[in-house]
DNA sequence: TTGATAATGATAACGCATTATCAATTCTGA
DNA sequence: TCAGAATTGATAATGCGTTATCATTATCAA
């Protein structure tokens, strides 16, 4: 919740890109998308703002197996993700199958879970 | 399936450690465990044998969200994992909740999933 | 036992994502 | 409009997991 925050063109575009993407983005993906609006935008600025927005609670980190951290607008409280095996992009899955904690073997106390689906996104399913 | 494979003490111990651990191990964990038997064992040897055993299909890689790759003996065809929030260790969960692919939104074609449970392992639940 | 060679250990090197540095630029309140 | 401070861009530096290098050692078929 650091406050001396200025509204720079770069910051606006980064947030807008994350917002309109509607899916978790890698720093590199975000950089590329934002570059379309602000050609000179540097990768360091992407990381700086990502961290800043994360600290403010505006963004949340998304970790998938074997993948680098992605970031998305904090919206739905608990949901899962779908990764396309073809293009590698990650999408939100609205909803949760519910309690999966009962799968824990005896002696284990489960209090949470992460689920990732794999397959083809609409774009890649068509092709 | 490279064959000129010799039975070295190091290789024996590494396989034995993975086998008796009964859970996925990080290269570093494996190194530490194996060191107990072969004090001079180097980390490079751990990585070399991990890759070799993986190529031979004796081991399989285990990727969890935000974690480095772990390795375990290839046994159960499809199962999931439990990570302890306290000690960080990863354990196998026998069984699978079944098809979760139906959660995919319209337009998406899901053909697989990964599931990780979080909580406390028996050791840490006791403490 | 021996010779050919695979394997090892120590460590330098690498790849890659992320962060620090710093001069130049841009905001913003006064 | 202006000064002070935050922000940016370019890039060097960092951290860390993994791999390459190479001299030495161990394995194993003959």
Question: What does the model show?
Answer:
Two copies of one chain form a homodimer. Chain A is α+β, with helices and mostly antiparallel strands and 127 residues long. Chain A has two domains: 9-73, Arc Repressor Mutant, subunit A (Orthogonal Bundle); 80-126, Dna Ligase, domain 1 (2-Layer Sandwich), CATH 3.30.1490. Chain A is 31% helix and 23% strand. In chain A, a hairpin with a 5-residue loop joins strand 3 and strand 4. In chain A, helix 1 crosses helix 2 and helix 2 (27-35) packs across helix 3. The model of chain A has no long low-confidence stretch (mean pLDDT 94). At the A-B interface, strand 5 of A face strand 5 of B. Chain B binds a DNA duplex (30 and 30 nucleotides) through residues 4-11, 27-28, 40-45, 47-49, 51, 68-69.
Number of strands of chain A: 5
**Strand adjacency order, main sheet of chain A:** 4-3-5
Instruction: Give the CATH superfamily of the largest domain in chain A.
Output: Winged helix-like DNA-binding domain superfamily/Winged helix DNA-binding domain
Number of domains of chain A: 2
Oligomer: homodimer
Radius of gyration of chain A: 17 Å
User: Can you give the mean pLDDT of chain A?
Assistant: 94
Kindly provide the name of the CATH class of the largest domain in chain A: Mainly Alpha
Return residue spans of chain A where pLDDT drops below 50 for at least 5 consecutive residues: none
Shape type of chain A: globular
Structural class assignment of chain A: alpha+beta
Sketch the major β-sheet of chain A: 3 strands, mixed
What is the largest interface, and how many residues per chain?
Answer: A-B, 35 and 35 residues
In sequence order, what are the helices and strands of chain A, one letter per element?
HHHEEEEEH
